[in-house]
TrEMBL record:
It is found in: Secreted. InterPro entries: 6-blade_b-propeller_TolB-like (IPR011042), MRJP/yellow-related (IPR017996). Its EC number is 5.3.3.12. GO terms for molecular function: dopachrome isomerase activity; dopaminechrome tautomerase activity. It comes from Bactrocera tryoni (Queensland fruit fly). This is L-dopachrome isomerase. GO terms for cellular component: extracellular region. Pathway: Pigment biosynthesis; melanin biosynthesis. The lineage of its organism: Eukaryota, Metazoa, Ecdysozoa, Arthropoda, Hexapoda. GO terms for biological process: developmental pigmentation; indole-containing compound biosynthetic process; melanin biosynthetic process from tyrosine. Residues 337-359 are annotated as: Disordered. Keywords: Glycoprotein, Isomerase, Melanin biosynthesis, Secreted, Signal. It holds the Pfam family MRJP. Belongs to the major royal jelly protein family.
Length: 456
């Protein structure tokens, strides 16, 4: 029965906007304390923008404005409204409201984790949460840095620091009450990407907010962290050390597998990780553009008696869904094979214009819910029914209020959570700061499936 709008923001705001920065030897915390608590005032020169870089951006934008006369353009060469990008921006600001575009939304026991990838300057913290008990009744709650502000602090000199998080796209919670995410280690400022430190997998214990594990992804696996925008974790609650993480790389179009037990990672390549050349022509929020994102989202089916499960995946610029068994991925030797035989299989097409960012399998019903970018909503497929276009349903659609669903997750209370963030308008045009641009939606899975072809 559709989705319920729980939060909406014209612009995002934070409890700690980064106006006080951590003393490098200081305490951890959310920045709520007084001077002397391990924080000091941000120095006036403490900025991550250099005037020559700003000038470079302006020059390149002028170039793209001249050469791109039709509004079909790639994400990396956007036709940007430069006035809007630096609207009211003081380059010394640790917080530039306009530049904060939320991406991920994951709920666990009263905290909604909201990510803010650092794709522009002025983002105080990339990993955040909303305290639902305290702020859940507000329509536009402020974000708390997670696990604290210090861990999210971006030092203006960009030193590599394994205690800090640079940029996070999406998070997931596993069966062992742990939060997993990838720090891409990269600032993705237009025309000026900086790999500050190696990309890393982080695992945080949600019972005490302590970091349990950090694994730096070696260069032998991937050059940069740029395409590491999501992570799926395969673990049985009674064997927490035996976890495997599956990581799609939308840029290099590979699938990485990380074994927690062995602290090792290996990489699969396959044609099915590529985008469909026709699937990348998109029209969203009044913008027409072409993207080439490959394998993007991975979700895990129910356990079979042998302890393995179906791993569902899709490229974003595509309408096709694929599957592989977890037994294939968990065996490192399989990654080295040049011919994967029938290990990876296409399930079929969802139909034209059904490109999806994230999807999530509901363990109880066997229904996959997927965020649809061209249809501004949520689709569904009950995996107990054949994969055919007729067996795909529509849970919700709203061309005005659901522009660009950037994340979709299911929590342990059987609720779907979805973020819509108007991303194409931000990239190719200008967001209106006087209207609601970002929304979080929620619905119980059974309610969502009701009155659709996905209902059991
Ligand atoms: O999460 C996404 O939608 C996403 C992240 C990301 C990073 C990147 O460098 C791209 O070129 C595309 C992209 N999509």
């Amino acid at each position: 029965d559709g989705m319920i709008e729980v939060f909406g923001w014209k612009q995002m705001d934070f409890y700690n906007r980064g106006d006080r920065v951590p003393n490098e030897n200081g305490n951890r915390g959310d920045g709520g304390g007084a001077v002397g608590d391990g924080y000091k005032k941000r120095p006036p020169s403490g900025t991550i923008v250099f005037p020559d870089q700003l000038h470079g951006l302006l020059e390149s934008d002028k170039r793209s404005k001249r050469t791109v006369d039709k509004r079909i353009t790639s994400r990396d060469d956007p036709l940007i409204n430069i006035e809007s990008r630096f609207q009211n921006a003081d380059t010394n600001d640790s917080y530039i409201p306009y530049n904060n575009v939320p991406m991920g939304a994951t709920h666990y026991k009263g905290r909604l984790f909201v990510t803010m990838p650092r794709r522009r300057i002025g983002i105080p913290s990339t990993l955040n949460y909303i305290d639902l008990l305290k702020d859940g009744k507000q329509y536009s709650p402020k974000l708390h840095a997670y696990p604290d502000f210090e861990t999210n602090y971006l030092n203006p000199n960009f030193p590599a620091n394994p205690k800090r998080i640079i940029s996070v796209y999406r998070t997931t919670v596993d069966a062992c009450k742990r939060l997993w995410f990838i720090d891409t280690g990269m600032l993705e400022y237009p025309d000026n990407r900086t790999q500050v430190q190696r990309p890393a997998i982080w695992v945080i214990d949600l019972s005490n907010d302590q970091v349990l594990h950090r694994f730096e992804i070696p260069e032998s696996i991937v050059d940069t962290g740029r395409g590491l925008a999501s992570i799926a974790v395969d673990v049985f609650e009674r064997a927490c050390n035996e976890a495997f993480a599956y990581i799609p790389d939308l840029l290099y179009r590979q699938l990485y597998v990380f074994s927690l037990n062995d602290n090792r990672m290996w990489a699969f390549s396959h044609n099915y990780f590529n985008f469909d050349p026709l699937g990348g022509d998109l029209q969203i929020g009044g913008q027409t553009f072409r993207w080439d994102d490959g394998i993007f989202s991975i979700t895990l089916g129910s356990y079979a008696p042998d302890g393995y499960r179906t791993v569902y995946f899709h490229p974003m610029a595509s309408n096709t869904e694929f599957e592989v068994d977890s037994s294939v991925l968990q065996n490192e030797a399989n990654a080295a094979r040049s011919d994967h035989g029938n290990d990876f299989r296409p399930l079929g097409s969802r139909g034209d214009n059904h490109q999806s960012t994230m999807h999530s399998y509901d363990q109880k019903s066997g229904i996959i819910f997927y965020a649809e970018i061209q249809r501004n909503g949520i689709g569904c497929w009950n995996t107990n029914k054949p994969f055919s276009a007729q067996n795909h349903g529509t849970v919700a659609q709203d061309a005005q209020r659901m522009i660009y669903p950037s994340d979709l997750t299911i929590d342990d209370e059987d609720n779907i959570w979805m973020m819509t963030n108007s991303m194409p308008i931000f990239i190719y045009s200008t967001l209106d700061p006087n209207v609601v641009n970002f929304r979080v939606w929620k619905q119980n899975v059974n309610e969502a499936a009701k009155n659709t072809v996905c209902a059991p």
